[in-house]
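I'm stuck. Protein, please.
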Amino acid sequence: MRRSALLLLAPVAALGLVACSSSDDSGSSTTTTAAPSTTSTTSGGGSSSSSTSTTEAAPQPCPSSSLAGSLGLSNAGAGQLYQPLVLRNTGSTACELRGFPGVSVLDSSGTQIGEPATRDGAEGAAVLLEPGGAASALLHTNNGPVGGPCEQTSASMRVYPPNQTEALTFAAEFTVCGGFSVTSVVAGETGTAS
């Protein structure tokens, strides 16, 4: 019984070797086999040692509590207004931002004015923010009532950083005319990829 089981396994093992073999026109062939690889750090003391596998942790998303918001310099022209929304890492560790912030403008009593910003464009790559580093998104609205009526000028802005449920609120004067939009975050303070 044991011998017949070995005879049945021999063709299966041969097929596995053939599947991993290749040849070229010169008649030579190569067989590739994959061996498992491990990375470990060994630490020891005394007569025994232990081995543990280590990997570097990926940066965590930036929490709202580690970010400060502000508006950069506006750029107006041809009836359009563009202004960067800057998010700066005020924490002591690096973190990551990826995606669209949620943005609303508020009056002096903290009541939302009009609708929040809509998303403009595709989601960009993740931005690694070292302590003190900045990422930004570009706000866009009409420069005056060209595309619709203007709302009152805001006293502050409420921003939900990407993938966060806690908002930042900071003083900001911004006038929405005919709606406004926000892009995905990019590295730096200009709101555009360099």
User: Anything to note?
Assistant: The radius of gyration is 29 Å. The CA atoms of residues 42 and 51 lie 5 Å apart.
